[in-house]
Amino acid sequence: MPEKTQILLIDDEKESCQALSLLLGRAGYSVQSCHSGEKALSLLKKHTYELIISDLFLPGVSGMDILKQVKEDSPQTCVILITGNASAETAVEAMKEGAFDYISKPFNFERLKLQVAKALEKNQLVTENLYLRQQLQRKYKFDNIIGTSQAMQQVFTRMEKIVNTDSTVLILGASGTGKELVAKAIHFNGARKDKPFIAINCGAIPADLLESELFGHVKGAFTSAVSDKPGKFEVANGGTIFLDEIGNMPLQLQMKLLRVLQEHEFERVGSSKKIRLDVRLISATNANLVDQVKKGNFREDLYYRLNVIPIVLPALKDRRGDISLLAKHFLTKICKEMKRPQMMLDPQALQAIEAYNWPGNVREMENVIERTVALTDGETIGCNDLPADIGNAKVAQTSMTPQVPANGLNMPKIIAEMEREMILQAMGIGNGVKARAANLLGINRTTLVEKIKRLGIEL
């Protein structure tokens, strides 16, 4: 049986209090009553109530005092005030202080019961919203972004330094490296976490619609504008806006975005009315914006505006020490989501996963693990359960000696590429510690440092 809703009823008129308590009890509520404000405050320290119904004029501590205390301690709790001496002034004051409703005596019980139901519905919505926000914040904590490699530790360090600032952030990385996840983690761990986080993919919306999508429009601005519509920037006001794939933004719109960043205001399409803006901008791209600037496809001044704090997310093949960790994390997560017993990767399957280059990065790995869990009957995943290109990756890696063609090959280049790949793998497995990586490669640390410099490897 579900628990009854808890209501605290406060009225110094005992007969009136008993009658209302009886009526609310018959309506299915659990009612606790008291006859003074002092007793009510004592009860509120010990118990939690979904709704408070209080007479306004009580001897000593008044209903208004109780309202103020409740709103200070538990803002989501609704308070209904009842009085036999109603006035417009006290009604306005009660509503300003946060009362859900203000009802005059003698009152119609059916009307009160309706207001009680509405107050409890509001309380439930607020509680659910608070719970969802807490879940989002938990979901996007830094420790939910998996990685122990040196490359990811550098990302975490930078995130920690900027999370409580309002600085503009540019996240760089290949598709599937988790750019939006990082953007959400920055937002939900920062000062704006209780405000909106609005994401928009600049590459997924046609160029002629993107301006309206970002900045909104007024009725009649164009043929299909049948009503006013706020844009994403307006919806995000006070919070964070995340512009994904910003390298795909048309040049004419780049100019407007630059003005918005400079002036902190904008106009809807078809309007000249200025709207003030207070948002944190986080953008992301898998494109090389420096090359785009050189080619004339991206404004240089906008690039510098966006690139205040860059965060570079490494490709999965460049953080091989994290691959098995990620695979096990996704396996546990997906088994729980599918309500399946915990599955295991056999050693050969794990070796194949570690040997594969993951061109689709973390997103590809999550999709592969999900597909494998769904299609595997047993509780152990072997190489044969993985997609063929992944299951065969270990075999391919062990037979990677290139064949010499009739027209020859560039042996120094091939050897350099092999050295680069092995060094990156060893650094990943060794969590970025050069001494560990050198030991794994069978060379001394000084030789490893020289090879890293010669090959131009960025760690």
From TrEMBL:
Residues 145-374 form the Sigma-54 factor interaction domain. PANTHER family: PROPIONATE CATABOLISM OPERON REGULATORY PROTEIN, TRANSCRIPTIONAL REGULATORY PROTEIN. Pfam families: AAA_lid_14, HTH_8, Response_reg, Sigma54_activat. The lineage of its organism: Bacteria, Pseudomonadati, Thermodesulfobacteriota, Desulfuromonadia, Desulfuromonadales. SMART domains: AAA, REC. GO terms for biological process: phosphorelay signal transduction system; regulation of DNA-templated transcription. InterPro entries: AAA+_ATPase, AAA_lid_NorR, CheY-like_superfamily, Homeodomain-like_sf, HTH_Fis, P-loop_NTPase, Sig_transdc_resp-reg_receiver, Sigma_54_int. GO terms for molecular function: ATP binding; sequence-specific DNA binding. CDD domains: AAA (cd00009). The modification 4-aspartylphosphate is found at D55. This is Two component, sigma54 specific, transcriptional regulator, Fis family. Keywords: ATP-binding, Nucleotide-binding, Phosphoprotein, Transcription, Transcription regulation, Two-component regulatory system. The keyword ATP-binding applies. Residues 6-120 form the Response regulatory domain.
